[in-house]
Recover the amino acids of this structure.
């Protein structure tokens, strides 16, 4: 075999093959090193890592537009540090490994100063090693299950204690709910949220029999059985409510089935954590009157900042009907915090910006001022809204002040002693019992 | 539950007050101050206002509260004036009843939350125990059955005595029984009668009522209640089987509808059309466009929107299907696996095209009134939209079958399927038949989209969620056989719905997939295998 | 005998392919490690990772081509074997994290601690050892393919029925792995890997080594496939592809041939998955998605079904196109490009890139067709299949 191979190599094939390979490698190297060379120094690049196609495009496309809008506004004000901001848009196509690939591309090839992106937890988990390895900054704008505090990530969406727990408190106090259906899509966010809620409800004296937990696959569209079960569970004589962590796509058929089977909010209210203005835009909301959602922002909240934001957003998108929602506000806060931090340290160097961010304050759209905490989460107000007939929410309750986001849930056995502190302890999972920073090897 | 009762009790109490005062002439005085509280935009003030207005006995109280329920009550926060927009569009001052030309600019609808909505609802419910409208009396009786408050017993009894409509009379009797069951000083024999009445009702709520009865009852009553509970439970268990079967049939009809078009393009023509789901999606978007036009131009036609959308969706998807066949598929006959590749590419293009044209988010497709709501059949709830979809699916299936059997095109299609060369020799223009067949399959996918828009998201991803299931149905039933597709769809639907309560939605679906895999081992060509030479392909 | 088969199978094009892959496997890591950063000819690390991914996809494509191009088995579920291999490797990598996870639990991976699991499920035992995981990378996909194939081929499930039940298989696995109760991390899958065999997975040296290994695996997979295709076994496979019943009537046990090549192909896909995971840094259920498997089949079709070089090339070309189109100003429109690419390739290059090139080359040389000529399509459910 060897002789045959050497013989083969000795022929013309070898030269052709080697020439081709050399050409390919050179081409690769050249194409990759030439591209960034063109990047002028008079702009600061901002990466946008949101899916524009595939299943998540439905939610994420708006966030891409939001960042483009915010960059546009900032550039009108003269940019940052005297330089214009330049957006770099990529499409990770709802494909989780592609998220990691695109993050790497943004940081290494495009040399962005910061990345705004991701929606699902799995996409964040997928890019996390890349951000740690290449030391860059990610702003993550979506409510999530918590249990994470990383040096390179800033979480501007709600942690469970900023959404789920206040919502349950509201139902207990205002609606006197005694029986609970925890319905969710089978993935990490609902699983964890429901675990936390279950522990919380039990600590408030709710019996196991009064909690029903139900999981459905992604994109579940046939809700007949489950809605009938909820109805049955709700007719046991105690006030019942549904806490829904059902993911985006499955919500429309769920609410349609609820409406058709005649479950009204006055009988069994449903409080959702993943249903916002954007999702309601696809449903006729009249049968859903009174069902609830818990968020840190609603479009209907009347503050001068919010009205200005909505007006400019609709002008920017040239669509007077375009709605705003909670993750958009999270990006708004995150973007402004990043700008402030960069201006404070007069540099876009990720290390300096990461150190500067905790403590930075930026106004939110609901009249308060949010602050970046040492655990890289932010303070936010919590609102409970009831669905109105026009696809908007009517705020029926809000927390008196701003709630600080907990990276680690107090309700879960594994994490109740952990805190994230990137200022004093320089550690994302510091164990307050053992006084040790976890994850460093014992 | 206790608080709930208090809520209901309070509401009922108010409504009775309201009822009794309606006959009394309106009193002057604090009524205007009470009405003005609606303008404070605080839920507690609104609640107080409801109570005071109801207690006032003013003739305007009832219109005010029903206006509040419908969102027709608006208030001007500056002048503290409150207005009712009447159903005929006229506006009156809520405090005085005087007509007003138009609402002030800063008047906003008085807000409600769930608790207030319940209060208002129960108040109006109690108010209508003696309403002239039987439907309202029925609703009122049912709300009394749930709240079973002792102090409405006299009203219920007098209503029962006067009642002439049979179903309403029954409801009043049940409401009376519910009150007596929970009345501490009722005699044992009365209670036993009450148990019997409630037992005869036999539904979920009767069960809830009897379980809530508690252990402090006399032994005789407790025993009767216990046996009633177990009999209702076994009855309900039987009904839940019926319910599962209905859900299965309904799911099966959805599967069938999504798969019928594929059964033609894939089963009859052998084209692996991965863009089939996108045809369904186009049908759903056609419905959206039709509804948009109707909403903005001819709102009165809204209930007919689906009827208009069906032929349009058929045409849109069918024409696109013909176009696809003429430009792509026809070059690929004899290379069927490459149709998979090309149509996959096509599905990507169509998805992105729709995403670009209509945006990536869900679009709202409303349910016409005849497709909303549900009715009770025995102890199960049947929703109208599912029922109509089932009828629609069967109709489409029947029409398709008749078309294949009795029309010239159908004959040609069958001939081409069975032996293309011979059909061509007999003078059939096979390429025309191919185009029409593909168009037909796509068009049917389009009208499936109209139906699916009623129960699912209308988004660019709509088609993706049905394509795999559709292929499973066609293959399970046997490629090339429409009856196979029918039986396959209903079998899978029913099996799925019987597995779901046992195994959960996810495991149930996995089990179905494993069963399909195993079933294909047993019958490698599906349920209804084609026989003859066509098989050895 | 083996060398004989190998030498006979190595015609010039194949030799060139092996040499090019070997050269890329050596030159890219060398350029990445030795040349100074920012130099004109230095291949940046992100490209090493990216090309490592492409090479893994190429192995997957090769495994599909082996069964589809040469034996006529169209599997629409090959992504499942790829993902299972990936999970086996991912489980090893998870166990290597040890107490460096965020909760510092030395045994349980983070996602188990977080969902209150108290002990490691039995099927995670042994994955702390590399040899065991490596064995599982081959065994799990191989065993699944063997059982599945044994059932399906024996009952003579063929054509589109087989394609659809392979799809059902991968879809069922997708749903199963989504379930958190299943113990594989649910939707998030396995991620945040630290070490492989004691080396930091993120270190440039490790990446370079993994890249080299992937190229090596591609070469080995190619040589094995090549040897099979050129042997007598290969001739029988092609006979099965072209006329299964006739082959059976000639006295060949068609099922055994199919089963062998199907299982082998699944093992190859498993290896591809195992190499893919440490380079990409995550494995999760979306790898089981039927769409992924269909896409892999499309790579083969684009490159040229029935040409091994074409399968590998197709995987690289399509994925490069995907990477290229999903960035920059074209990002919102990339699906149009990709979709159009698929349609155009089918219409204009029915034999795929390499197949078309081959026939063009043959025509140009006016010589007799090579053994490696483009494959004849089998007629699954063709409109004129009744002939």
């Amino acid at each position: 075999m060897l002789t045959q191979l050497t013989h083969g190599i000795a022929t013309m094939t070898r030269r052709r093959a080697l020439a081709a390979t050399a050409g390919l490698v050179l081409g690769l190297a050249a194409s990759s090193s030439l591209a960034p060379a063109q990047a002028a120094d008079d702009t600061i690049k901002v990466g946008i890592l949101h899916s524009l196609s595939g299943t998540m495009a439905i939610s994420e496309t708006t966030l891409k537009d939001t960042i483009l809008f915010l960059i546009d506004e900032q550039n009108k004000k003269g940019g940052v540090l005297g330089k214009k901001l330049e957006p770099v848009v990529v499409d990770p196509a709802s494909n989780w490994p592609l998220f990691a690939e695109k993050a790497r591309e943004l940081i290494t090839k495009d040399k962005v100063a910061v990345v705004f992106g991701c929606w699902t937890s799995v996409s964040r988990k997928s890019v996390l090693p890349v951000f740690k390895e290449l030391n860059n900054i990610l702003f993550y704008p979506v409510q999530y299950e918590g249990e994470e505090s990383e040096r390179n990530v800033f979480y501007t969406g709600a942690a469970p204690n900023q959404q789920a727990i206040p919502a349950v408190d509201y139902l207990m106090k205002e609606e006197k709910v005694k029986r609970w259906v925890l319905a969710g899509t089978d993935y990490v966010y609902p699983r964890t949220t429901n675990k936390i809620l279950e522990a919380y409800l039990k600590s408030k004296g709710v019996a196991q029999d009064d909690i029903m937990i139900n999981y459905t696959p992604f994109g579940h569209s046939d809700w007949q059985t489950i809605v009938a079960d909820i109805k049955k569970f709700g007719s046991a004589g105690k006030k019942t409510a549904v806490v829904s962590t059902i993911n985006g796509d499955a919500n429309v058929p769920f609410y349609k089935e609820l409406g058709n089977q005649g479950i009204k909010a006055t009988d069994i209210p449903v409080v959702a954590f993943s249903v916002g203005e954007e999702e309601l835009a696809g449903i006729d909301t009249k049968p859903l009157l009174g069902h609830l959602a818990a968020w840190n922002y609603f479009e209907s909240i009347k503050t001068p900042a919010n009205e200005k934001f909505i007006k400019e957003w609709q002008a920017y998108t040239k669509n007077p009907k375009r709605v705003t929602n909670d993750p958009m506000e999270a990006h708004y806060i995150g973007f402004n915090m990043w700008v402030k931090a960069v201006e404070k340290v007069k540099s876009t160097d990720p290390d300096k910006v990461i150190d500067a961010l905790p403590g930075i304050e930026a106004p939110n759209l609901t009249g308060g001022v949010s602050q970046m905490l040492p655990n890289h989460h932010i303070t936010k107000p919590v609102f409970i809204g009831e669905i109105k007939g026009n696809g908007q929410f009517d705020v029926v309750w809000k927390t008196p002040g701003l709630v600080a986001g907990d990276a680690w849930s107090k309700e879960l056995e594994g994490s109740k002693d952990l805190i994230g502190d990137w200022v004093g302890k320089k550690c994302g999972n510091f164990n307050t019992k053992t006084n040790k920073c976890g994850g460093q090897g014992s | 539950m206790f608080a709930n009762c208090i809520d209901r009790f309070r509401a009922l109490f108010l409504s009775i007050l309201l009822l009794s005062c309606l006959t009394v002439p309106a009193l002057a005085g604090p009524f205007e101050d009470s009405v003005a509280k609606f303008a404070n935009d605080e839920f507690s003030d609104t609640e107080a206002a409801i109570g005071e207005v109801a207690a006032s006995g003013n003739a305007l109280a009832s219109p005010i509260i029903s206006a509040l329920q419908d969102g027709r009550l608006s208030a001007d926060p500056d002048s503290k004036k409150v207005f009712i927009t009447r159903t005929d569009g006229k506006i009156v001052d809520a405090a005085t009843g005087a007509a007003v030309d138009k609402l002030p600019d800063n008047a906003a609808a008085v807000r409600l939350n769930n608790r207030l909505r319940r209060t208002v609802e129960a108040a109006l419910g109690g108010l209508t125990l003696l309403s002239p409208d039987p439907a309202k009396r029925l609703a009122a009786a049912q709300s009394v059955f749930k709240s079973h408050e002792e102090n409405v017993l006299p009203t219920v009894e007098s209503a029962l005595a006067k009642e002439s409509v049979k179903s309403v009379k029954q409801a009043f009797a049940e409401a009376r029984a519910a009150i007596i069951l929970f009345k501490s000083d009722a005699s044992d024999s009365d209670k036993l009668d009450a148990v019997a009445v409630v037992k005869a009702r036999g539904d979920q709520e009767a069960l809830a009522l009897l379980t809530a009865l508690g252990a402090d009852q006399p032994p005789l009553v407790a025993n009767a209640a216990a046996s009633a509970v177990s009999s209702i439970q076994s009855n309900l268990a039987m009904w839940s089987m019926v319910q599962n079967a209905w859900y299965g049939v309904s799911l099966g009809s959805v599967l069938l509808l999504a798969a019928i078009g594929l059964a033609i393009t894939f089963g009859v023509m052998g084209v692996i059309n991965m863009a089939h789901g996108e045809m369904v999606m186009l049908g759903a978007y056609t419905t959206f466009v039709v509804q948009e036009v109707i909403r903005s131009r001819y709102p009165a036609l809204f209930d007919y929107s689906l009827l208009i959308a069906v032929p349009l969706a058929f045409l849109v998807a069918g024409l696109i299907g013909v176009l696809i066949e003429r430009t792509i598929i026809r070059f690929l006959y004899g290379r069927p696996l490459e149709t998979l590749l090309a149509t996959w590419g096509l599905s990507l293009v169509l998805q992105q095209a729709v995403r670009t044209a209509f945006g990536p988010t869900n679009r709202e497709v409303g349910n016409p009134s005849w497709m909303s709501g549900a009715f009770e059949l025995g102890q199960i709830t049947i929703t109208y939209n599912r029922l109509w979809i089932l009828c629609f699916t069967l109709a489409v299936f029947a029409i398709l079958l008749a078309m294949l059997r009795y029309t010239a095109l159908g004959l040609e299609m069958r001939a081409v399927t069975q032996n293309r060369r011979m059909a061509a020799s007999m003078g059939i223009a096979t390429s025309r038949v191919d185009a029409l067949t593909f168009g037909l399959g796509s068009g049917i996918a389009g009208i499936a989209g109209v139906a699916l828009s009623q129960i699912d998201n209308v988004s660019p991803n709509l088609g993706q969620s049905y394509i795999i299931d559709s292929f499973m149905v066609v293959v399970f039933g046997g490629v090339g056989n429409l009856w196979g597709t029918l039986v396959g769809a209903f079998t899978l639907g029913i099996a799925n719905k019987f597995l779901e309560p046992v195994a959960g939605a996810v495991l149930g679906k996995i089990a179905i997939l494993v069963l399909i895999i195993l079933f294909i081992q047993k019958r490698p060509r599906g349920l209804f295998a084609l026989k003859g030479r066509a098989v050895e392909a | 005998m083996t060398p004989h088969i190998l030498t006979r199978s190595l015609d010039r094009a194949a030799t060139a392919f092996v040499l090019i892959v070997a050269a890329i496997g050596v030159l890219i890591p060398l350029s990445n490690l030795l040349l100074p950063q920012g130099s004109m000819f230095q291949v940046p690390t992100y490209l090493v990772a990216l090309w490592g991914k492409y090479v893994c996809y190429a192995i997957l494509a090769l495994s599909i081509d082996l069964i589809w191009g040469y034996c006529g088995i169209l599997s629409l579920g090959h992504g499942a074997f790829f993902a299972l291999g990936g999970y086996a490797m991912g489980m090893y990598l998870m166990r290597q994290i040890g107490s460096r996870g965020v909760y510092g639990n030395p045994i349980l991976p983070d996602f188990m601690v977080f969902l209150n699991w108290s002990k490691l499920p039995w099927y995670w035992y042994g994955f702390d050892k590399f040899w065991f995981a490596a064995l599982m990378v081959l065994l799990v996909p191989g065993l699944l393919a063997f059982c599945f194939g044994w059932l399906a081929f024996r009952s003579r499930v063929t054509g589109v029925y087989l394609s659809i039940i392979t799809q059902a298989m991968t879809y069922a696995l997708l749903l199963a792995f989504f379930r958190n109760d299943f113990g594989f991390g649910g939707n998030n899958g396995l991620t945040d890997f630290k070490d492989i065999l004691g080396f930091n997975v993120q270190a440039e040296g490790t990446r370079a080594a993994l890249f080299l290994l992937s190229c090596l695996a591609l070469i080995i997979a190619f040589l094995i496939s090549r040897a099979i295709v050129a042997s007598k076994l290969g001739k029988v496979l092609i006979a099965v592809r072209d006329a299964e019943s006739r082959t059976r009537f000639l006295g060949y046990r068609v099922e055994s041939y199919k089963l062998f090549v199907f299982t082998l192909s699944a093992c190859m896909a498993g290896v591809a998955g195992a190499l893919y995971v440490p380079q990409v840094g995550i494995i999760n259920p979306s790898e089981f998605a039927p769409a992924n498997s269909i896409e892999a089949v499309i790579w083969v079709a684009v490159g040229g079904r029935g040409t091994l070089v074409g399968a590998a090339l197709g995987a690289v070309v399509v994925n490069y196109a995907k990477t290229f189109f999903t960035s920059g100003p074209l990002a919102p429109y990339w699906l149009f490009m990709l979709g159009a690419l698929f349609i155009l390739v089918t219409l204009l290059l029915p034999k795929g890139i390499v197949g078309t090139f081959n026939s063009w080359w043959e025509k140009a040389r006016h010589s007799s067709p090579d053994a490696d000529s483009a494959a004849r399509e089998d007629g699954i459910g063709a409109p004129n299949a009744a002939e």
